[in-house]
Amino acid sequence: MSVAKNSLIMASGTILSRILGFVRAVMLAGVIGVTTNAADAFGVANQLPNNVYAIIVGGVLNAVLVPQIVRSKSHADGGKGYIDRLLTLAILVFGVVTLVATVSAPILIHIYTHGWSQQQLALATAFAYWCLPQLFFYGLYSMLGEVLNARSAFGPYMWAPVVNNVVSIAGLGAYIWLFGVDPTGKQNITDWSSQQVTLLAISATLGVAAQALILFVSWRRIGLHYKPNFKFRGFGLRPALKAATWTLGMVLITQIGGLVQTAVASITVSHRVGNQVGVASIAAMSIAWLIFMLPHSVATVSIATAYFTKISTHAHEGRLDLVKADLVTGLRLISVISVLSTAVLMVLAFPFSRVFVGEFDGMIALGLVVMAFVIGLVPFSFVFMMQKAFYALEDTKSPFWFTVGQTLLYIVGALVMGATLPLAWLVAGLALLMSVTVLIQARAAYVLLGRRIGSLKEFKITSLNTRAVIAGIVSSAAGFGVLQLFGGIHAGSFAVATVLSALIACSGVAVVMVLVYLLMLTLLKVEEAKSAIATARGILRR
After folding, report:
1. CB distance 289 to 21 below 8 Å
2. CA separation, residue 508 to residues 170, 200, 350 (Å)
3. For all residues of the chain together, what is the average pLDDT?
4. Taking Cα atoms as reference points, which of 125, 77, 37, 114 lies closest to residue 229?
5. Are 482 and 476 in contact (CB under 8 A)?
6. Selection from 160, 128, 148, 155 nearest residue 50 by Cα
7. Which of 34, 75, 112, 429 falls between 20 and 30 A from 1, CA-CA?
8. DSSP for 21-66, written as a single string
9. What angle do CA 210, 211, 212 make, to 5 degrees?
10. Phi, psi angles (nearest 5°) of residue 22
């Protein structure tokens, strides 16, 4: 199956998953709001499993398992014994870590917050007890998915989150039916019942569990049948773990940066007055990140994942010329799509935010955070693709150093912002800081990768980026003009009056921007424009 077809399969699953994810996020915003104390308490608790998972094992799975599993296919049993032992070990590790993390929920909540009242901490901790078991299923999902990716079965890994969202949406529907909605935080955090806490949090955990377990079905479809195997000695994991040492260090440093980000952003919670909704905090940052990650997940992750196995195979064969060619093809596709996504989200940041927040002040607060994040979308996506290339080359040391540099810059900047910025601008400032430091990280990664595989200048990536940016600017101007026809951005205008009107405005503006962007790419003779148009025609025909 071609890389383009694999990417399309993954992207289609991701698109459906993201659509359902947005439905889920809108429902959650209706239930507990975006800039409320309850939303921030749930936001911290529901993010903890991701943070702990990333610290413990995330780096190993992403950095070394695909190359190792690809190699294991040359074994006499086709790699089955290696995979069985690897999954058995993973299940044991995930189980122990999940148990320890869940018991430590109060400590983890204290670490990730700053200046919260005892009532706020108590609610967040209650959520965390139900959310932290997600850690086990996140690990299982990643393990099962990486094996499928290594066997070139890319679709299930990207489609499984659809199940997660369906289960979570059902849980939120049950919550709304039983307890109603509270988008402005009128319910005091001390009045939350155990039934409310349990239903809201356990629906999220059950969704993650379903997402992981459904992949066992896909294993059987490609002929894999898991059998527990506890013979860990001598099955070749030591080289992988040695290679992962740098990656684990990188992930740990990154999570320290995330901890500082969450702790600094949580300052706004302790200073929030009553039902004040115009100050963005942790929940708003999570929603903004969800919006930011939409194009990244649909395009960049799909493209990079499809190319990763191919690049790993070429790297194993010592074909650096093919490694460079595949890498550049991926980067060019990512650039064309990410620039358009940046332009669209910058123009539509406020109407898009209106889908999640009903109050005008809250919408503005969320929209500013979205814009600040989106500035860094292109370099963020480039870093992701280049990291995949380093991992395929089994070089985990270089990503460690360029990530440490970015994280240290971010930590210093975040602490300074926490001490100096007005609360109303703090979270947007943190998002902008991320964009600036990721831009520096992307440049460092590009230089280090050039030293590893040779210069990429002959592929004219800079020239492509310049033409894409020009097309993006023209597209933004056209989109801004259309947005004014919908009333612009002010209280009561059609573009932000209701959720439905905001969606209509977003759709109308986005269509115009995409058409203008493709036209400009064609006029500027960007080859990828033809591929994009052909792909769009194919999707429309289907």
Report:
1. no
2. 30, 35, 15
3. 82
4. 77
5. no
6. 128
7. 75
8. HHHHHHHHHHHH-SSSHHHHHHHHHHHHHHHHHIIIIIHHIIIIIH
9. 90
10. -70, -40
- pLDDT for residue 333 is more than 70: yes
How far is residue 470 from each of residues 44, 190, 460, 515, measured CA to CA in Å? 39, 53, 16, 14
Structure token digits, residue 191: 């009045």
The residue type found at 260 is V
Q: How far apart are CA 431 and CA 261, in angstroms?
A: 9
Instruction: Write down the residue that tokens 């499993």 correspond to.
Output: 49
Structure tokens at 245: 């040492």
Q: How far apart (Å, rounded) are the C-alpha atoms in residues 361 and 357?
A: 9
Burial class of residue 406 (count of CB atoms within 10 Å of its CB; 0-12, 13-18, 19+): buried
More confident residue, 379 or 117: 379
Question: Looking at residue 348, what is its pLDDT?
Answer: 95
What is the helix (H) or strand (E) element at residue 132, kind and residue range?
none
Task: Tell me the pLDDT band of 165, cut-offs 50, 70 and 90.
Answer: very high
Average pLDDT estimate for 413-436: 91
Q: Is it the case that residue 320 has pLDDT exceeding 80?
A: no
pLDDT at 209: 94
Q: What percent of the chain has pLDDT over 90?
A: 32
Could you write out the DSSP letters of every residue in 281-312?
-HHHHHHHHHHHHHHIIIIIIHHHHHHHHHHH
**Size of the chain, expressed as the number of residues it contains:** 542
